[in-house]
Design brief:
heterodimer; A: mainly alpha; Arc Repressor Mutant, subunit A; three-stranded antiparallel sheet; B: about 260 residues; alpha/beta; Rossmann fold; eight-stranded mixed sheet; 13 helices
């Protein structure tokens, strides 16, 4: 009986995994689209040491500053939560958030299927 | 929905525009209206609130809070008995010692990033949890790190300015190149206005200022000789409730209270 239940659960688990991977892939595609839109100019900073201080915020392009400021205010947020504040599309915010992660300004953490973005103020090297 | 308190940053391009006098009297005016107010001295390079309030010792300074050495509750000093009525007035002071000023001037970008986090956290700890209606941040003039941190944390920025030509130009630049970039709600307070400038009519000055700065004008404060003579030693809202300066600051407090 237990074996049958386990077998029945397996396709579901596989589908969940496929969905999760597709979401990750989608986020990466969104980042690539945004990078192409902005001609990769946003990525010209050193990646290893990039504290998100106010002078960095000031020097950012407007579209990224809005996203970064929202995360600063919220502390820790999903792309949905940021989009709700900025009134921009979730996919757009997801791309900007991932760009900020690539630039080492934000950290990203997964909790189940949700991705949380935050400024890692205490552990910034 | 319960309305949350607001953080106000009082800033200027140049020094000597009357930020601290405005901050302290605005805080006292809010308290007199029955509000709970916190006033913080974020001018770490030239602290002055401790002198104005005649307080030379504190269990903890704002420097300690930003250095993550203490909780914000240890910084707060209760001065509610000085304003009477049902309101509350608490202050947080910057350490005026030379050593502390030197220490704060030598902070790096990572420290400033953490300091911004601790300032942003005040929204929860003071406004949400403790129920303060207003947190007023008195800042250093110009583009200092601590001032920009305060501006980023604030819901409303009050810019104290005068008719001094370099102040007007600098303020205009700051409005475009600082506050606009952070999408901050900003109001101008024109301070130390000489009688002659007001002779053409207050409405005329209002219109001119709005043309120059393109942001709303919160108030115009004429140059009062007795305010200057007091050299910051008198809190007008507390000691001279009938003074015209007190009335003007009270009107500004009303306008802020009525903002959405």
């Amino acid at each position: 009986m237990a074996k049958e239940e386990a077998l029945a659960r397996k396709p579901l688990q596989v589908l969940e995994k496929i969905k999760e991977n597709l979401e990750k892939l989608n986020e990466k595609v969104e980042v690539m689209i945004e990078l192409q839109k902005h001609d990769r100019k946003d990525l010209q900073q050193p990646l290893s040491d990039a504290p998100l201080d106010v002078m960095t915020l000031l020097s950012m392009p407007d579209h990224l500053r809005k996203t970064a400021m929202t995360v600063c205010r919220l502390g820790r947020a999903t792309a949905d939560e940021v989009a709700e504040q900025t009134k921009r599309a979730r996919a757009v915010e997801s791309a900007y958030l991932n760009q900020l992660v690539i630039m080492s300004h934000l950290k990203k953490e997964r909790n189940g299927r949700k991705a949380y973005f935050f400024v890692d103020r205490e552990n910034h090297v | 929905m319960i309305e949350m308190g607001k953080i106000l940053a009082v800033h200027s391009y140049k020094g000597g525009t009357g930020k601290t006098l405005l901050s302290i009297n605005l805080a006292a005016a809010f308290a007199k209206h029955g509000k709970s107010v916190c006033l913080f001295d974020l001018d770490f390079r030239a602290p002055s609130l401790s002198t104005l309030l005649k307080i030379d010792k504190a269990e903890c300074w704002l420097n300690d809070y930003l250095n993550a050495l203490c909780d914000i509750n240890k910084v707060l000093l209760d001065l509610s008995d000085r304003v009477g009525n049902s309101g509350k007035l608490f202050v947080g002071l910057a350490n005026p010692s030379t050593e502390a000023i030197r220490d704060m001037s030598a902070k790096d970008r990572k420290w400033e990033m953490r300091a911004l986090g601790r300032l942003l956290a005040l929204k929860t700890s003071l406004l949400n949890d403790k129920g303060f209606d207003y947190l007023i941040l008195d800042t250093s003039p110009g583009l200092q790190y601590s001032s920009i941190n305060a501006i980023v944390s604030a819901d409303l920025v009050l810019v104290a300015t005068t008719f001094d030509r370099s102040d007007v130009d600098g303020t205009r630049r700051m409005l475009r190149e600082l506050y606009d970039l952070f999408e901050k709600k900003t109001e101008i307070v024109l301070n130390k206005v000489l009688d002659g400038s007001l002779r053409s009519g207050k409405d005329d000055v209002d219109t001119k200022l709005k043309d120059v700065y393109q942001v709303p004008l919160l108030g115009i404060v004429p140059c009062f000789c007795d305010v200057l003579k007091a050299e910051g030693g008198v809190i007008f809202a507390e000691e001279k409730p009938e003074h015209p300066f007190t009335r003007i600051v009270g009107e500004m407090a009303n306008r802020i209270e009525n903002m959405g």
